[in-house]
Design brief:
The chain is an all-alpha fold. It has one domain. Helix content is 72%, strand content 0%. The chain has twelve helices and no strands. It is globular. Keywords: Cell membrane, Cobalamin biosynthesis, Magnesium, Membrane, Transferase, Transmembrane, Transmembrane helix. It holds the Pfam family CobS. Its EC number is 2.7.8.26. Joins adenosylcobinamide-GDP and alpha-ribazole to generate adenosylcobalamin (Ado-cobalamin). Also synthesizes adenosylcobalamin 5'-phosphate from adenosylcobinamide-GDP and alpha-ribazole 5'-phosphate. Pathway: Cofactor biosynthesis; adenosylcobalamin biosynthesis; adenosylcobalamin from cob(II)yrinate a,c-diamide: step 7/7.
């Protein structure tokens, strides 16, 4: 297996991937959409199994699909959602917001944000009552993971160092276009249905990026995670609304 893909999968999932990682951490960036595809197809498989067992019980599909997503990613990006909510709305100036985001404790804004995001994803999954809709789930994971690369390339890192610094400071235009190409290739099975999903995902990702720039002067590791989760949720809703 390609070292860059191994690096991406080990970072973005709990999957026990054999092999040697790339020599440079940043070499995994072009493969983030591929890691998203692996996660997406696994979650899709769980949802299809739930649909086969109980086709009229959308709640079961939603619970199992959401649980699989959280388990496979160890809730990695959800932490970013909570930290961003606490920092962005818990501090009145940039330095204080960054301090709050580094605090390992979760505040009221973080709890509210997590509840709303999880409820949103559950609601979208619960509405996926037919196979044609369920099989589009991988696109949501592909585009949202591409969004991490997009944010890293388009925005600055707001601290001198910290979590996510290597990704944001090392992301280049080459990484972005390679990730875009990988993502488009992996989205081909979805056909033309993938086109509006890419548009919706990129729009939400950039919205999070500009919010991060406004609140803290750029995108930290937490903002990368929050952008990924919010893009994924947006795409799940877009899949349902477009069905």
């Amino acid at each position: 297996m390609l070292p860059g893909l191994i690096t991406a999968l080990r970072l973005l999932s709990i999957l026990p991937i054999p092999g040697r990682e790339s020599r440079h951490f940043i070499d995994g960036l072009p493969w983030y959409p591929a890691a998203g595809a692996v996660l997406g197809y696994l979650v899709c498989g769980v949802c299809l199994l739930a649909h086969a067992v109980a086709p009229d019980w959308g709640g079961l599909l939603a619970v199992l699909g959401l649980a699989a997503s959280i388990a496979l990613t160890r809730g990695l990006h959800l932490d970013g959602v909570a930290d961003c909510a606490d920092g962005f709305w818990g501090g009145h100036e940039r330095r204080r917001r960054l301090e709050i985001m580094k605090d390992s404790r979760i505040g009221a804004f973080g709890v509210i944000a997590l509840v709303l995001v999880l409820l949103g994803e559950w609601t979208a999954l619960e509405r996926m009552v037919d196979v044609d809709t369920i099989i589009l789930i991988p696109v949501a994971f592909i585009v949202s993971r591409f969004g991490i690369v997009l944010l890293a390339h388009c925005f600055e890192y707001p601290r001198a160092q910290g979590t996510g610094a290597a990704v944001v400071k090392g992301a280049t235009r080459r990484h972005l276009w390679q990730a875009f190409g990988v993502g488009l290739l992996l989205s081909l099975p979805a056909g033309v249905a993938a086109v509006p999903l890419w548009g919706a995902g990129i729009a939400m990702t950039l919205a999070v990026g500009f919010l991060g720039k406004w609140k803290i002067g750029g995108v930290s590791g937490d903002v990368l995670g929050a952008g990924c989760v919010l893009s994924e949720m947006t795409l799940l809703f877009a899949i349902v609304l477009g069905s």
